[in-house]
Specification:
By secondary structure, this protein is α/β, with parallel strands linked by helices. The chain has a 6-stranded mixed β-sheet with strand order 5-4-3-2-1-11. The chain has a 5-stranded mixed β-sheet with strand order 6-7-8-9-10, covered by helices on one side. α3 runs antiparallel to α4, α3 runs parallel beside α9 and α8 packs across α10. It is globular and about 80 Å long. The N and C termini lie far apart (about 60 Å).
Length: about 525
């Protein structure tokens, strides 16, 4: 009978297996949300890479595994980007090639206890280095960061307040490496167990000593989710439905009303009639409205997506223009080179314009809000800066209408829990078509989720918090510590190789008279 190792000698079979095992971690994210599976999801990928016959093959295992992970994580793009989804997955998957090589370098063959101990730190650092690079907005941003799979685990959310989602990624990879060693390397089980104990001890200490946000007040925030409105004149009909739903809030003593992304499809400077209708809603509800305008500006060239605050007299002047645009969805990177994507999928026909700075708005009665638009809620640094600038509540206005029947809406809504836990500030995720959700300062869910089958105006009692989390104070320290760790390991490897090249340093043998022996004697 052929062994598995013999079966994997075929390059294409091995590559297929690598793509499949690389895709496994996606099951830990919404919609499956098997959060516990993240602790072992990387084990098959690690075991495959460590058995690669050469470093080059291990790098290919990393590349193919990364391709499988990215394709599975973004599979809901297939109906819109078609074949270009595979191109994106292949390009991003290449980032894991060095990680595959690193796994083999440290865990290949029969690793010593020292190599295993190093692997428990260096391999997770290599994973974080990949997440650092792919988190660049031009590469799609930090969607599907491994630590984000822990969005509903209370202990993990506490740890996120210390080191952000990056600390969670590091610890999850460490657990996977330790389990892989326990399975495959018997002689190194002691350091693997020690690594598990150390991880548990560090995580427990951080959980116990990390400061909890102190809640001292509550505000009533209403989310208006109109549901799917498609077809001719959809922008006008959506506005009518949002207006009708908002009027249901009259008499409910709300402090703020939030509409989703692209909730207003016309520039309010060109449509003063809409501005007057919004001002009337503010007067009737007794609250200011945060709407999102997706339209060509009347005061400057280009299309912008903008969060606009509306008061009883109309727009207050507070406006935030979206800064980080969705690649291909809202602009085409290097359009002269990649513009062909518009012919094979639903990529943006015209690039939207970028805003220049984040904004904290005064929503009345001392309430300060920090708006973000769409996938900006995936970027921990944006919510962190808003918290630093004094935002009491973080808000993300989103629309995943295009991907209504996929895992995307639930994945997007889950990010709010992490941003809340990281900053110690409540997070409101308001969408046009679901999933809308609200999270408290510790990442806990507040009130009901509004699913993709719901059109409603829902009021939430949102707890406010004071104090600063370690993550807000110290920033992305695990993320930037990873390259330092890799560099330190690289230096020790170079020194070790050089010592090996010089041969063992053996002192010269001495004669019976105590003098050094000469060659030939």
């Amino acid at each position: 009978m052929k062994t598995l190792g013999h079966w994997l000698t075929s390059p294409w079979r091995r590559s297929t297996v690598a793509a499949v095992v690389g895709a496994l971690p996606v099951l830990a994210f919404p919609a499956p949300s098997l959060w516990w599976f993240a602790y072992v999801a990387l084990v098959p990928w690690v075991l495959l890479a460590r058995t690669a016959p050469t470093g080059r093959r291990a790098a290919l295992d990393g590349w193919w595994g990364g391709f499988g992970f990215m394709l599975a994580m973004h599979h809901w793009l297939l109906p819109n980007l078609h074949v270009f989804t595979f191109v994106i997955a292949a390009l991003l998957g290449a980032l894991w090639a060095p990680w595959g090589w690193l796994v083999r370098r440290l865990l290949g063959g029969v690793p010593s206890r020292g190599r295993v101990a190093a692997a428990l730190v260096v391999v997770p650092s290599g994973w974080l280095a990949v997440e650092l690079v792919r988190s660049w907005q031009g590469l799609g941003g930090p969607w599907g960061v491994l630590g984000a799979s822990q969005w509903q685990v209370g202990g993990a959310l506490r740890l996120a307040s210390v080191g952000g989602v990056w600390l969670l990624s590091f610890l999850v990879v460490t657990l996977n490496v330790a389990v892989a060693v326990l399975i495959a390397v018997r002689r190194a089980r002691v350091p693997a167990l020690a690594g598990l104990v150390a991880t548990a001890a560090v995580a427990s200490a951080a959980w116990v000593f990390s400061p909890r946000p102190g809640t001292d007040d509550r505000v009533r925030i209403a989310l208006v989710q109109p549901g799917v409105v498609a077809g001719p004149d959809s922008a006008d009909r959506r506005f009518d439905r949002e207006e009708k739903l908002t009027r249901e809030l009259v008499g409910q003593d709300v402090d703020l009303v939030v509409w989703g992304e692209s909730s207003v499809g016309f520039d309010l400077g060109d449509r003063p009639d809409l501005a007057r209708r919004l001002a009337a809603l503010s007067r009737e509800t007794g609250a200011e409205l945060l709407v999102n305008v997706d339209a060509r500006r009347s005061d400057k060239p280009g299309i912008y997506k903008s969060s606009v605050l509306i008061g009883p007299d109309g727009p207050t002047g507070d406006r935030y223009d979206k800064m980080r645009l969705v690649p291909f969805g809202e602009y085409v990177p290097a359009r002269s080179l990649l513009g062909w994507a518009t012919s094979v999928g639903e990529a943006a026909g015209e690039d939207r314009r970028q805003g220049s700075e984040q904004v904290v708005m005064d929503a009345g009665n001392g309430l300060r809000i920090g708006p973000m638009v769409c996938f900006e809620s995936a970027f921990p640094d944006m919510s962190r800066h808003l918290a630093e600038d004094g935002a009491d509540v973080l808000l993300a206005q989103s629309s995943t209408s295009t991907f209504q029947q996929s895992w995307a809406p639930a994945q997007h809504a889950s990010l709010g829990a992490l941003r809340a836990a990281e900053t110690g500030r409540p997070m409101v995720h308001a969408t046009l078509t679901g999933v809308s959700a609200v999270y408290g300062p510790g990442g806990e869910r507040v009130g009901p989720r509004l699913g993709t089958d719901t059109a409603a105006a829902q009021v939430y009692e949102v707890p406010l918090a004071h104090g600063t989390t370690p993550y807000v104070r110290f920033g992305d320290w695990p993320l930037y510590g990873a390259p330092v760790m890799l560099a330190a390991w690289g230096v020790t490897e170079v020194l070790r190789v050089r010592r090996g090249a010089r041969g063992p340093l053996v002192p010269p043998a001495r004669t019976a008279h105590g003098s050094p022996a000469r060659p030939g004697h």
